[in-house]
Amino acid sequence: VTLRPEAMRRALSNLIDNARRHASLIWVSAARNGASVQILIDDNGPGIPEQKRETLLKPFESEDPGGTGLGLAIARDIVVAHGGHINLLERPGGGLRVLVELPG
């Protein structure tokens, strides 16, 4: 898979900006996992209820007053265009974990 650096930068920037709006601490890590690369963005914010996670990855869906609902959707579209996927998960200890998996 050929990585488009500017597009991937935008996806990760959107995900990190989203975490910054909701949390005081953010952890970003990346590691190769077999044939894929995993990027984790963890935060200590309130998290997202499980039943809303898939919805918030769609365009124009937002929990933020005044939010456009595009940041997570754009990030998802970029990651999918690179052959990967995004999962929104509960972070152990509370908060949100965004798991980005890309072919390695």
Concise account of the structure shown:
A hairpin with a 2-residue loop joins strand 1 and strand 2. The protein has 104 residues and is of the alpha+beta class.
What does this protein look like?
The structure is a single chain. This protein is of the alpha+beta class. The protein has a single domain, classed as Heat Shock Protein 90. The protein is 32% helix and 29% strand. The chain contains three helices and four strands; from the N terminus they run H-E-E-H-H-E-E. A four-stranded antiparallel sheet has the order 1-2-4-3, with helices on one face. The chain is globular. 21% of the residues are buried.
How are the secondary structure elements laid out?
Layout: H1 5-22, E1 26-33, E2 36-43, H2 50-53, H3 71-81, E3 85-90, E4 96-103
Antiparallel strand pairs: 1-2, 2-4, 3-4
Helix pairs in contact: 1-3
Q: Count helical runs.
A: 3
Main sheet specs? 4 strands, antiparallel
Number of strands: 4
H-E order? HEEHHEE
Overall form:
globular
Distance between the termini: 8 Å
In helices, the fraction of residues equals: 25-40%
CATH class annotation: Alpha Beta
- CATH superfamily membership, which one? Histidine kinase-like ATPase, C-terminal domain
CATH architecture group name: 2-Layer Sandwich
The tally of domains stands at 1
> What's the average pLDDT?
92
Q: What structural category do the secondary elements indicate?
A: alpha+beta
- Percent strand: 25-35%
Low-pLDDT segments, ≥5 res: none
Strand order of the largest sheet: 1-2-4-3
Classify the fold: give the CATH topology: Heat Shock Protein 90
Radius of gyration: 13 Å
